[in-house]
Amino acid sequence: MLNASVAARRVRESVARTRVSVERRLIAHTPRTTVASPRRTALASTERRTSRALAAGAIGLRRRLVSLATERRGAPLLAIVLLAVASLLSQFSGVAAGGTGGTDGPGTAYNPRIVSINVNGPDFGQVDPSLSLQTTSSAPGTDGAGPTAGTYAMVDGSLIKPITADANVADISGQVRTYTVRSGDTLSGIASRFGLSLMSIWWANRLTSADTLHIGQKLQIPPVDGVLYTVKAGDSVTSIARKYHATAADIRAFNSLTGDTVVIGQEIMVPDGHGAPIPTAAPAPAPPQLASASSPGSGANGPVGGACTSCSYSGSMLWPVPGGFISQYYWWGHPALDIAAAYGTPVLAAAAGVVTYAGWRDNGGGYQVWISHGNNIYTTYNHMSAVMVAVGQHVDRGTQVGRVGATGDATGPHCHFEVWIGPIWDGGTRVNPLNYLSH
Q: Of 9, 179, 397, 420, which has the highest C-beta tally within 10 A?
């Protein structure tokens, strides 16, 4: 154990050295600036207070150590205190004086370097070296500079904002009306109500059969005759015109289009366009005992039945196209009546008889039906869009045999109606149908 006087002297020397060391460190790290900002002034004031507090603490510690050193029994305690002070000084010796800081969360990454690129140029996807960097201290969407809506931007080579497409395209959906089917409605009646052809309604609603109409059904009503069409991938005005037998100029004019380009999902009207015809009903097989090939006729493309021996025609004939009107009368160059009506309008048997032919023929009449009425009287119904009877079938006056169409050599939907005296195209003669019709 050390002598009390020696211990006291050593304690005084150690405390003096500690005080000098602390003061030197404080002086060395005190900012030496003549122009002080408010922040620096506050920091200097804080450091001076800290220095005075440390100095006062060192003096108080020295006095306490001296007091302890005068007592022999205080020497062990003094040694322990000295070790503790040395340990604390070693902890603070590696901390540099100056500003401090930290983080308070992940934050949001933002790089203010923005490079605009030309999306319409040949080098789309590459930065144009002639473009200058646009820098800003604000994030996108603030008052500072940043990428704006409708432009592409690059941040360190990465595309960060897509262009905003102009969705304002010509569309006629606002001109398309909606009709709710009511009791007693027919497709031809609905078409007539809106001044359109039956087929325009048929195509607009993608119908497969007129019999599918039901009360409450919603039908699209196009603004004019033609095909209401929704653009699909790969379409152009030219290809649509070709598909529906229309002219590209008419499509552009009606839909306010300026070029050949259309947009997927765009609804356009193909004025005077023609889609697929109403599917032809498959005729039922003819009874073998009634079918005959005794009158093959001209350009035969199917069986032709013989005259009806059980029929006995007398009286007048029924008008074959309800609501139809005469578009061309009988004359020597046209030995028939053309009865115009909406596409798909029913065609009725003018009198009771038996079907001798039903189907397509290459004689210009397209889809047609021939009927033998007895007493050497025959009728034919031509240019139909659908045939609804079969060879050998017995029909009554008013039985539906087909639908109005424009197949074969025809310029529009109508029924070319003929009355024959004698076998059709086998020695018979065509006469004026008005002499037999009750209409």
A: 420
What residue has token string 């065509």? 430
Q: What is the CA radius of gyration of the chain?
A: 52
Instruction: Summarize pLDDT for 226-273 with one digit per residue, the tens.
Output: 999 999 999 999 999 999 999 999 999 999 998 898 898 899 999 999
CATH of domain 277-439: 2.70.70.10
CA–CA–CA angle 368, 372, 377 (5° rounding): 110
Name the one residue in this structure whose structure tokens are 């032919």. 357
Residue 373 Cα distances to 317, 380, 428, angstroms: 10, 11, 14
H or E stretch including 382?
Answer: strand 377-384
Bridge partners (DSSP) of residue 429 are 421
Residue whose C-alpha is closest to residue 229's, from 210, 206, 257:
206
The dotted CATH code for 173-271 is: 3.10.350.10
Q: Measuring CA to CA, how many Å separate 421 from each of 341, 370, 411, 426? A: 26, 13, 27, 11
pTM: 0.38
